[in-house]
Amino acid sequence: MTYVPDRITSKPGHTQDGYGGHELDVPTWPVEPDRYRLVAARACPWANRAIIVRGLLGLEDVLSMGLAGPTHDERSWTFDLDPGGVDPVLGYERLQQAYLARDPGWDKGITVPAIVDVPSGAVVTSDFPSITHDLFFEWRDHHRPDAPDLWPDDCREEMEAVMKRVFTDVNNGVYRCGFSGSQEAYDEAYDVLWSTMDWLEERLTDRRYLMGDRITEADVRLFTTLARFDAVYHNHFKCNRNKLTEMPALWGYARDLFQTPGFGDTIDFDQIKRHYYVVHEDINPTGIVPKGPDPSVWLTAHGRDRL
Ligand SMILES: N[C@@H](CCC(=O)N[C@@H](CS)C(=O)NCC(=O)O)C(=O)O
């Protein structure tokens, strides 16, 4: 993987021995229990991945987590859910403080998820794909004994291809629809999104999960977009050919995951809706947050166990 200069990142973010040696000008941080804090927000799909993977792997006791609230002040994410508006471990009011601790001149995005080094208060990485990758590969010694194999060797190549398509057309595709600056760009993004949604619908008709009969990283990545689909993307991002609830296989699959420990319990629909509809003033200038849809449908029977 290459160093992405507009994000604070270290590739790899964590190495077991602390000596990455991949990027001479980018420090690496050793894996160390109780040293780092995952800063996430329940609203954000990219952060949601990290919350889910941390839980599935049983890393809660070695990697603490701070949660920013769903909306922002003028300097992005704040810890307004915490008593006194301060993260109890970092002592920060804003995630921006961790970015400035790493680089006092930081004037780019303040994004979640971020891994923060607690002793120095500095962001280690905000590179979301490498965060979950590292939690699996570099933090292995600290996984719970029955942790799922989220990156199985025997289907890695196919899984990477599936994740690439899901990322481009769906995870990122919904944003491309929502933030397109022209009718042509929107039409193109919409068509690409739905052709991949149809492909996923077909793929999931005869298999329980994306890679067959076990949950992998690919499912985590698709789930976080599907969980937001009808509540936000269908309306706010104009991804409205149909609702997720109208695609039998995908809807069954999404509910199956939602009802699996570690998935649905990370979802807060109120925070999700407030984030998108309030923060994106450009596409929702009134800031009005829709009341629906009824989230109880997520708990209905999915029947996917037969697969
Ligand atoms: N932009 C990040 C991905 C994570 C991301 O976009 N997170 C969003 C929230 S969903 C964010 O923190 N945006 C900055 C903000 O909301 O101020 C990246 O490309 O590395």
TrEMBL record:
CDD domains hit by this protein: GST_C_Omega_like
Q: Which residues form the GST C-terminal domain?
A: 141-276
List the GO cellular component terms: cytoplasm
| Superkingdom of the organism of origin | Bacteria
Q: Which Pfam families match?
A: GST_C_2, GST_N_2
Question: Residues annotated as region Disordered?
Answer: 1-26
- MF GO annotations: glutathione transferase activity
Give residue numbers for the site Lowers pKa of active site Cys.
Answer: 233, 276
Which residues are listed for glutathione binding in this entry? 77
> Which residues catalyse the reaction?
44 (nucleophile), 175 (proton donor/acceptor)
The UniProt entry, under SUPFAM superfamilies, shows: GST C-terminal domain-like (SSF47616)
Its name, as the record gives it, is: Glutathione-dependent reductase
Organism in which the protein naturally occurs: Nocardioides silvaticus
